[in-house]
Amino acid sequence: MNKLLRIIRKTLVFGFVLLLLLGITGYVYLYKLPKGPEVTTPTPILVGKDNFVMYAYHESKRKSIRVWTYKPENWKSGDKIVFVMHGGGRNADDYLEAWVKAAEDNNLLIVAPAFESKFAKYTTNDYQEGNLFTFFGTKNPKQEWAFTVIENIFDHVKSVNDITNSTYDIFGHSAGGQFVHRMIMLMPDARIETAIAANAGFYTFPNNTIRYPYGISHTNSNTDLQIAYQKRLIILLGELDNDPSLGTFRTTDLAMQQGGHRLERGSNFYEANAQLSSSNNWTFNWEIDTVKNVGHDYRNMSKVAIKWLEENP
């Protein structure tokens, strides 16, 4: 019996040490070693399709990010800049392609960041949840939030291309829709004019008793909602996006409490925020739009998004 207990203790100790080593190795690999493609020399954005690679953070060279762009020939400083946020497939170049015709027809500079990750199938904290927390649950500084990266890209585009624009618009679909609505809620000081969150899989509700990303607990952003409601956010929903089998659909208990499918979740999210703003007598500049005969389709949702940019006050 004593021999068996010694074997069990040794096994448990060995298992603990192994898990500890794996955790440390994973942390160093994910958050300490340099990540991303090789940074390119800053040059003005070319007409048509182009891309560049820059450091994601101002204070660190640990992470780089590729940014796809499309510029019409007649686009000039002062004309609209639209950030397009990809879905969970992290296919920024495909999303860029979906906006080419709209860019030409409406003279838009399209900027599509690629939040690439080898572990995209297993983790969402680094992109659609804003990188507020590491995979291990520890907090990241605000300067390393994914939302901050968008502001950094805007600064880069302005400085390299001698652009005077003070604001930009942003559209995101599916995982990108998650990204956009959370950016408005958690970083309302961002220089966004109009934000469009389309067909998000699940939402961050304005509930400070539910932990992020399902609620706003532990984000230190509770007092920012009044400011967030002053921003122009469009919750864009596909009428036919009521099939949970489409795309990657989260089915955790907290996610299912938001609704049985994306259409229901988006409607419930909008109503929860509208009710909170009304009960506090706050200004509320968010709107909701349900698109007829469209499901979980980023191409068709992108086409509809244009009307909201055209109506930008």
Automatic annotation (TrEMBL):
It comes from the Bacteria. This is Alpha/beta hydrolase. InterPro entries: AB_hydrolase_fold. The chain crosses the membrane at residues 12-31. Keywords: Membrane, Transmembrane, Transmembrane helix. PANTHER family: BLL0132 PROTEIN (PTHR35560), PEPTIDASE S9 PROLYL OLIGOPEPTIDASE CATALYTIC DOMAIN-CONTAINING PROTEIN (PTHR35560:SF3). The keyword Transmembrane helix applies.
